[in-house]
Specification:
The complex is a heterodimer of chains A (about 110) and B (about 120). Chain A is mainly β and about 110 residues long. Chain A has no helices and eleven strands. Chain A has strands spanning about 5, 10-15, 20-25, 30-35, 45-50, 55-60, 60-65, 70-75, 85-95, 100-105, 105-110. Chain A is globular. Chain B is globular and about 40 Å long. Chain B is built from no helices and eleven strands. The interface of A and B includes residues 30, 50, 99, 100 and 101 of A.
């Protein structure tokens, strides 16, 4: 079954508002990554948080990780219309010297001007 | 300066045909992947190669055969196409090696439609 599940499936907000997306997973992980996918395009890496980290920032992005609850959240502050995209969390399982990413189904974010 | 490129971008074909999708990366990465994204947007790994060696094979039907002529290329050949193969296929690459903290770089995707 899918490792990561995002919540909500879809989110619609106004420009300037904050957007929060959540991700839950089932097994122990090495790290968790967030990716963005614009319509009709490939995925773009946003941020990686290691299993021993609790919070990480990158520009307007803030990611938290709670390994006890097996959950992560992505916060986008002061959203812009250009942030409209699907956002995926991916849990990284490192085994045998290789990294495997397991993706959730994504959250579709729509930011209205 | 396209980092990960795929051809073709769109592929429409009849059931039963054989088709190939090509992928190339110019990032100097050691590891390449193929993912399938279905209509519900689930992205699932299919294969991974490290330095031309198969390291991940996620129980994909043997109608799918990846081929890596060198570490910059990973092609996907699909035999006897079925309706359920319709999806968007993404190629990706990463630095590989022994570090688990590698981000993956994705190509633009190939939308396969089987009629």
């Amino acid at each position: 079954s899918q490792q990561g599940e995002e919540d909500p499936q879809a989110l619609s907000i106004q420009e300037g508002e904050n957007a929060t997306m959540n991700c839950s997973y089932k097994t122990s992980i090495n790290n968790l990554q967030w990716y963005r996918q614009n319509s009709g395009r490939g995925l773009v890496h946003l941020i990686l948080i290691r299993s021993n980290e609790r919070e990480k920032h990158s520009g307007r992005l803030r990611v938290t990780l709670d390994t006890s609850k097996k959950s992560s959240s992505l916060l986008i502050t002061a959203s812009r219309a250009a942030d409209t995209a699907s956002y995926f969390c991916a849990t990284a399982l490192f085994s045998g010297g290789y990294n495997k990413l397991i993706f959730g189904a994504g959250t579709r974010l729509a930011v209205h001007p | 300066d396209t980092a990960v490129s795929q051809t073709p971008k769109y592929l429409v074909t009849q059931m039963g045909n054989d088709k190939s999708i090509k992928c190339e990366q110019n990032l100097g990465h050691d590891t390449m992947y193929w993912y399938k994204q279905d209509s519900k947007k689930f992205l699932k790994i299919m294969f991974s190669y490290n330095n031309k060696e198969l390291i991940i094979n996620e129980t994909v039907p043997n109608r799918f055969s990846p081929k890596s002529p060198d570490k910059a290329h990973l092609n996907l050949h699909i035999n006897s196409l079925e309706l359920g193969d319709s999806a968007v296929y993404f190629c990706a690459s990463s630095q590989g090696g022994t570090s688990p903290y590698n981000e993956q770089f994705f190509g633009p995707g190939t939308r396969l439609t089987v009629l």
